[in-house]
# Entry
Amino acid sequence: MPEMNFIQAINTALAEELRLDSKTFLMGLDVWVGAFGATSGLTDEFGAERILNAPISEAGYAGAGVGAAMAGMRPIVEIEFASFFYCCWDQVCNQAAKLRYMSGGQADMPITFRAVCGAVGSAAAQHSETVYSQFMSVPGLKIVVPSGAYDMKGLLKSAIRDNNPVLVFEHLKLGRSKEEVPEEEYLVPIGQAAVKREGSDVTIIAIGYMVSQALKAAKALEEDGISAEVIDPRSLIPLDEETLLSSVAKTHNVLVVDEGHLRCGAAAEISAVIADKGFDSLDAPVKRLAAPDVPVPFSPPLEKFILPNDKKISATVKEMLG
Amino acid sequence: MADTSLSTDKLLDMYRTMQTIRQFESRVRDIFQEGQIPGFVHVSIGEEASATGVAAALTKQDYITSTHRGHGHLIAKGGEVKPMMAELFGKKTGYCKGKGGSMHIANFELGILGANGIVGAGLPIATGAGLAAKVRGSGEVAACFFGDGASNEGTFHESLNIASSWKLPVVYVCENNLYGEFTAGKDVTSVKDIADRARGHDMPGIVVNGNDVVEVHETTSQAVERARKGEGPTLIECKTYRWEGHVVGEEAFLGKRSYRPSDEIEAWKRRCPLITFEQRFVPDTFSQEEIEAVQADVKRAIDDAVQFAQDSPYPEPEEALEDMFSNA
Ligand SMILES: Cc1ncc(C[n+]2csc(CCOP(=O)(O)OP(=O)(O)O)c2C)c(N)n1
Ligand SMILES: [Mg+2]
# Structure
């Protein structure tokens, strides 16, 4: 199977869907260049009418996407860095998320929002957030956090075809990481977790870039005689509770790892679901490993201190299993 | 020739500031490329006159807000190059103890309410600083630096409306360098002159040659006076150009694509703010030796700043958890 990196996976998913459905179009800052490469070359094939270079007006163009979706189109809106979502919060959370429900189910809202997220190395607090957990408490949005090229391509295609607003978070650190990606068309359904590695002593549920760190940790733990199962929820809304709970039923121990903040984060929600519905399977309290509740600092030693990584994951697992 | 009412001291100060910005930015570009500075940096080479001319019309008590391309604004408002450079390195001796970095330097004692990573975020903040001055009757003015691209954010329009309606002491300074990232302003902006947008908010909108420090300074001084008298805000548009990429190392993003014609870049380099100044004031007002002495002084200061930053310690990792809430 041919290999593809994460950015190429985004690029081919976009191109395939743009080719397939003339109602699909893309808007964002500098999309003609593709600041991170994801939209490179799309203007050549689809023209400036469907690959729209937007002014720096997030509320304006995100909202224009919402309006176009209600008027029968299938827009893909790129928000560059996920922290810039704060500039168009109303259009995403009050409008895209709510208008179908508020209109008594009249409006379809087939819109995809894409943003790069995560700490990529001293980009400081306003360019390093993961942000997805903030959206998790807004009913009406689907949230997808791919951890590699294969899922990225399949999930983005599903997101674009979905008739509801879907937010896709693309961790910039995954940009160059490669995976095998089939040449023939495939979709990854939204709402299905993936068991990335099987194990029997502990379940590590990891989100986005943290999946790679959990897999590394699992390898190291194996040398210490600990068998870790690694699960990637792939989408946070909807959450595949069944896959998570059946893993817990097998291992009886759970660590949830997220790069976002600890308080009210994605890990908190997942932990609550497991505590609620998997209590009888648990040998010990569900444990979370996430960033402390401070903005992401600039200085390298500070940034390193707050971010979870493979070493912190394996240390936490060892502590848990005593 | 030297047809200005400005004193020679003031002129030489402004030249020194422009030199400091030029040399600071050039060095930052070079050492970033050597890998000495983490993250990413936006430098303002070619745009020294707008920062300098505006800040020279302000007092220490006045406020500024700045942008992602903020080093020049901060130097012009009195920022010292040592703690600035240390901040860029992520060191404990930086203005923000390494927590902010290039895009987030602030120093409240100097009225610098911060560079900002969010385009357009400084506009309401400067408006609020003007509001504070007006509410307490303390007489400060706020100058707000922002780019042409930022003038397409809602915050721009909302801020100008608030400041005009409430007659706030704010000077809005748009540094129009023709591009926002890799997109030409003309492709995504409804007006040719950003200053025209002032009309919609019933305030003066003035276009100046942003590479002429004297013109920037004189226009800003009038706007500051108007603001201090309670007559409300002004929008000044400085036509200028950035010589370097949007970020240092942008070639990595762009590959073979280019978004600016090379003859355009060359033409603007001929309109260099420093050369514009020298052509006007040397030798009639200043001798070549005086000018060279400034250049040499500045070079020493920048050398020292880099040394200081290199020698300074990083913060302790646990300091990441400090500075969240005030305990006062
Ligand atoms: C809200 C927001 N959107 C997008 C960005 C990404 N970004 C950083 S600088 C920049 C261009 C800004 O252009 P302009 O205001 O003209 O300033 P210049 O870079 O030309 O000095 C963009 C789009 C951002 N930092 N914040
Ligand atoms: Mg600009």
Q: What stands out?
A: The mean pLDDT of chain A is 97. Chain A touches chain B through 40 residues (CB under 8 Å). Residues 154 and 187 of chain A are 4 Å apart (CA to CA).
